[in-house]
Design brief:
Blueprint: H1 19-24, H2 36-46, H3 60-77, H4 86-99, E1 106-110, E2 116-120, H5 126-142, H6 144-148, E3 150-152, E4 161-163, H7 176-195
Antiparallel strand pairs: 1-2, 3-4
Protein name: CGNR zinc finger domain-containing protein
Pfam families: ABATE, zf-CGNR
Domain Zinc finger CGNR: 150-191
């Protein structure tokens, strides 16, 4: 696998505090879900399915479904409900429709060492995975505490939205290691340039 591709685990991020927000984050800094392989890696990395779950049956139609849910969820998360706004109403209707699908059914089975591990009762269907993501979006949008914790990253040109659960709710960046580090490096360079 080529370094820097969407399926590279260093490129896939799961640090927004909600899986539906992690899905939205797959558009930054470039499209991360640009192939079925990338989508399979994201589904597994996000925890939607247990590690090792077969996803060979995923096809390009899955990409369309995930991209659509991502766009509708982003529209709802990044805007406030406005009466009679047709785009908001359509996005909400679509997310609610997708949330009707039952999420993949888990079961506990003995692992190699005898400890119980989670596995799915069968290969997950796209609708079931989209249903789990849509339900997470519905829960986020209807939870006043979580909704109040939504923040836009303060990093330069970073559109990522995350849930701030930090003490005092003073988190500024989607990731301290990525955007926070960029800010610290930029600050250091500005100071060094002034000192010359």
């Amino acid at each position: 696998m080529a370094l820097g591709t969407a399926t590279d685990p260093y490129e896939l991020r799961f640090d927004t505090g909600r899986i539906c927000l992690d899905l939205i984050a797959t558009t930054h800094p470039a499209e991360r879900l640009d192939s079925v392989d990338a989508l399979r890696a994201w589904i597994t990395g996000s925890g939607l399915v247990p590690p090792g779950t077969p996803l060979a049956h995923a096809d390009p139609s899955w990409l369309s479904g995930f991209h659509e849910l991502r766009a509708e969820t982003a529209r709802l998360v990044r805007s406030r409900p406005v009466p009679r706004n047709p785009r908001h109403a359509l996005a909400l209707a679509r997310v609610n429709e997708l949330a009707l699908a039952a999420p993949p059914a888990p079961r506990a089975v003995p692992g190699e060492d005898g400890a119980l591990v989670r596995e799915l009762t069968g290969p997950p269907r796209c609708a079931a995975l989209l249903g789990a993501l849509a339900r997470d979006a519905v829960e986020l949008l209807t939870d006043p505490v979580a909704r109040a914790g939504l923040r836009q990253c303060a990093g330069d040109d970073c559109p990522i939205v995350y849930v701030d659960t930090s003490r005092g709710r003073r988190r500024r960046w989607c990731s301290s290691e990525i955007c926070g580090n960029r800010e610290r490096v930029a600050r250091h360079r500005r100071r060094a340039a002034l000192a010359r």
